Amino acid sequence: MPIQRSSQWYSGTDRNAYIHRAWMRRGLPGHAFDGRPHIAIANTASDLTPCNAHLNEVAESVKQGVYEAGGIPLNLPVVSLGETNVRPTAMLWRNMAAMATEEMLRANPVDGVVLLGGCDKTIPALLMAAASVDLPAVVLPGGPMLSGTFRGVPLGCGTDVWRLSEEVRAGTLSQEDFLSSESSMIRSRGHCNTMGTASTMALVAEALGTTLPGVAGTPAADSRLLQAAHEAGGLVISMVRDGRRPSEFLSRGSFLNAIVALAAIGGSTNAVIHLLAIAGRLGIPLIQDDFDSVGASVPLLVDLQPSGRFLMEDFHRAGGLLAVLREVVDLLDPTALTVTGRPLVEYLDDAQIWDPEVIRSRSDPLQPHAGIAVLYGSLAPTGAVIKPAAASEHLLRHRGRAVVFDSIEDFHARIDDPDLDVDADSVLVLRGCGPKGYPGMPEVANMPLPRKLLEQGVRDMVRICDGRMSGTAYGTVVLHVSPEAAAGGPLGLVRSGDYVILDVPARRLDIDATQEDLASRSPAEAATRAFANPSRGWESLYVSTVQQANTGADLNFLVGASGDQVARESH
Ligand code: FES
Fold first, then answer.
1. DSSP 8-state assignment for residue 145
2. Whole-Å CA distances, 21 to 25, 32, 436
3. Where are the domains of the chain?
4. Has residue 261 got a pLDDT over 50?
5. Are the C-beta atoms of residues 280 and 559 closer than 8 Å to each other?
6. Residue whose CA is at the smallest distance from ligand 1 atom 3
7. What would the CATH number be for the domain defined by 37-147+187-347?
8. Residue 529 and residue 492 in contact, taking contact as beta carbons nearer than 8 Å
């Protein structure tokens, strides 16, 4: 048995080795410390993260796999982020979760790690941590919930909350009927069952090569998830023995494969920020433009909500990610490896589409060009993104009068005012919602439409924001505008009544004003508020060090890796 990292704690006859072994024994036999791999199970299970609450049971199956392969499994509860609960936004805490997980993996006597995540930020945070500590690591996604129905119609988790609440505001659905759908929304354990951020990040993790191929998308309630957990426990032992670390098997090609997958599945725009942050931890050159240049030629093959009809249970039944990737295999980097040590493309030969309604063939795509468009212009000097597949075709080229809101509170206070000067051609602008501005960059960019326009039948408008959009949302929404208003971006200079020009085919986002005019204006209150507020704790650290969305919104001192070495003993 080769000497493991954990042996730095456990081997020897001195006092410190005695202490490390003695406190960990608690029923373990002496040979548990003979140099066999000790495996952390970085576990985001929490009752306050309902999408991940089942992960303790999953962890038990991982443990069985680790034991079977000759290792010692160790449950390591890590910071968990429940998207629906955590205020002001789970994104404020993604980097904290990543930092805390990285540090606890480095500080403890472990040789490898199984990463158990699910809800939106948990898999990105775990991957950022694993990349920076660079221990052999495999992701096990917790899986989506089963499909719910309401009055015989499938209910898409998240997406249908937005849709039904808009129907209430439009007066086409009663409040009573709306509330009666509530208990049908969450049918089982697991994360949101639409192609929201959680589903996207699980599938993107697989396309990156960080999961067992074929596992992502397995419903949380499916017994095959426990089987996969068992296998992941065995796999990480072989990764430790082979020295297969993230820095060894992840490459720029892995990330480009993830971008191809993101486009083909019609995945969440949040994946742009998360993939940029993960690549930043590995020192892999990846820029926002890669999502456009690589993803733009990829066809949309998956008919899932929010841009389509079906749900994740259907996706898994239809063949899952491997069936999608087989259709676009010519766009994939054949050299990009997976956690198994074998290239991702080797797993595609046997993949099949079992339901062509859910997963389309390359010859019959839902849209010939999917992906995420990256826009530049006088309103977004360092970029903004839009998901054309979720937008309205007729709005992709649009010129309209800005109606500006300085904060989400300002927006809520005025959007339904009957006297608000807004029409269907207006462009709603919401600022002060970027990483520094909120702080934390919340998912508010998909602003609800003014009630009076909803009542007229309007269902989409151009919306522009320096925040993010829920992966379960849809519409002609330009988001991640950078620099954000609170960092001095020109979004802070726009005034209601200015004309804004969106031209997605030309990849432009501009304000119809001269540079001299803009230079003469003072930044809005939203541009300065963030720096006045947090004076202590994480918020203070976050606001003073967070980077902009176009590079992944990581903290500037967390970019890169520190490896797994700890220089000093604790006693
Ligand atoms: Fe957890 Fe949607 S709220 S995945």
1. P
2. 6, 9, 45
3. 37-147+187-347, 149-183, 373-551
4. yes
5. yes
6. 83
7. 3.40.50.2300
8. no
Element (H, E) at 452: helix 451-454
* Whether the CB of 443 sits within 6 Å of ligand 1: no
- Cα(193) to centroid of ligand 1, in Å? 9
Task: Please tell me the distance between residue 51's alpha carbon and the centre of ligand 1 in angstroms.
Answer: 6
Contacts of 462 (CB under 8 A, 6+ apart): 395, 398, 400, 427, 428, 476, 478, 500, 502
Instruction: Return the closest-CA partner of residue 255 out of 133, 371, 349, 337.
Output: 337
Which residues pair with residue 43 across a beta bridge? 77, 116
What CATH architecture applies to the domain 373-551?
3-Layer(bba) Sandwich (3.50)
Helices and strands (H, E) in the chain, number of each type: 21, 14
Q: What is the CA radius of gyration of the chain?
A: 24
81 C-alpha vs ligand 1 centroid, how far in Å? 10
Nearest CA to ligand 1 atom 1: 119
**In terms of residues, how long is the chain?**
571
Give the number of other CB atoms < 10 A from CB of residue 365: 18
Strand partners, 377: 380
| 224-257 residue pLDDT tens | 999 999 999 999 999 999 999 999 999 999 999 9
Amino acid code (one letter) for 438: Y
Q: What is the pLDDT of residue 532?
A: 59
Residue 346 three-state SS: helix
185 lines ligand 1 (CB under 6 A): no
